[in-house]
Known about the structure:
Layout: E1 3-11, E2 14-20, E3 33-37, H1 43-51, H2 67-70, E4 80-87, E5 93-100, H3 105-114, E6 122-130, E7 133-140, E8 151-155, H4 187-206, H5 212-229, E9 233-238, E10 244-249, E11 252-255, H6 261-280, E12 285-290, H7 298-311, E13 315-320, H8 324-327, E14 334-340, E15 346-348, E16 352-353, H9 360-366, H10 376-393, H11 399-413, H12 417-423, H13 431-438
Parallel strand pairs: 3-13, 3-14, 8-12, 12-13
Antiparallel strand pairs: 1-2, 1-4, 4-5, 5-7, 6-7, 9-10, 10-11, 14-15, 14-16
Helix pairs in contact: 4-5, 4-6, 5-6, 5-7, 10-11, 11-12
Amino acid sequence: MPALRLIAEGVGPFDRLDLDFSDGNGKPHLGPHILAGVNGSGKTTALRALAWPSSYSADGSSGSFGWSEFKHSLTGHEHSRAILLLQGTDGYLRAFASEYRAASETQFLRWAKNLLPPHHGLASAWGSAVDEVRYVLFSLGGAHGEISDLMAAYTSSKRLGYLPQPSLSELSKYEAGSLAFDSAVSNESVQKWLVDQFSKRALAEKRGQPAEVYERTVEDISNALTAILGEEARLDVGLEPDLHPILLMRGRRLNLSQLPDGVLTTLGWLADFIRRQQKAGCRDGILMIDEIDAHLHPRWQRQILPTLQAALPKVQIIVTSHSPFVISSCRGARVHLLEIGRDGKAMARPPIDAPFGQSVQATIKGIFGVDTLFDADTETKLEDWNELKRQEAAGKLPAPDRKRLHDLAKELSGRSEELRFIVGLPPKLSSSMLRAVIGTNQAGKVRKTSRRSVR
């Protein structure tokens, strides 16, 4: 059930947002798709706009999307609406549409239908209205009804922590839906499910029954963590004082409160997504992660998307990121660059291929538009030095500025070898280096060198 296209109007900083998730030939592209841009360009809003149209089911119940918070991002717009076009597992197209503060149902349906591709057998499968929002599912051929495949959305917040008895814990009466973002990962549910995989595998083996499904689940998560971290990380279960999940890592047996935040957050949403896949009986779906690079060391940022691509080959992955290590890390990834215009409104560029194979420096310049790799203070001083050098070359540099040019060159050259090379100040040799160059004796006196006459 991968997404093909999202069109939204009156959402956050966007008057109109158009995100193309296709391969350019009308078929869905699994990505990974990376939403990138400066702060305020609407990355998180765009990701939540993806979840909004499909967050209600036929009976009008919520998928714990967090509508009460999301609707505040619609402030200032006369009306807000979105349509998400997907391709179902049956090969037919579906479209979820939603509108807030609708002028009329007729206008809303006309707007949505005008955005649908040519089709046969168009019908509205169901519609509902909740909290001033109208939802409708369009079925473009094939059977009508909801799309049963999995859509899940997460943030990189830490949700897991040690529980003394996860295998015996009474699960919360309320378990967040798959589109809950901040609260999609339930500490109790994930830990009980992890322990259950080991318990069911052991029981199946004892009874001589197939245990591959439980073993594969544990191995999938362990292998993914190992690939991301670049070191061995295996899931296991601690027996005392009660059954609880642990991670074998760096020669230690660590419970879930002892893990680094980057490992803990990644384990949280990864285990929850695979748990939901198992529950839904599917291996595909759409996985959305906001700020996937949060809490991750740059070395791990380089591995997160390629690992997910390999571990979840049938899943469409859509993430937001500020990291050049993430953006340039994955073959076949697509980058959707969001920008802010002079009027303060955001827009999305057409998607481009991720700069796979290019340096991080090239990504920083090409995607983020940052021309320098130095800190802001160094860059300011370099600009001053450059301007003074231009005046010197033109023969228009006053004496006071010549001193300032010298002082800037001296200060910058002391910061790094790279800057010393740029400003062209000769290096200051240490006393030991000087002695080696000019040849001094141990007493610090210059040795006399004999001259041999040439006959």
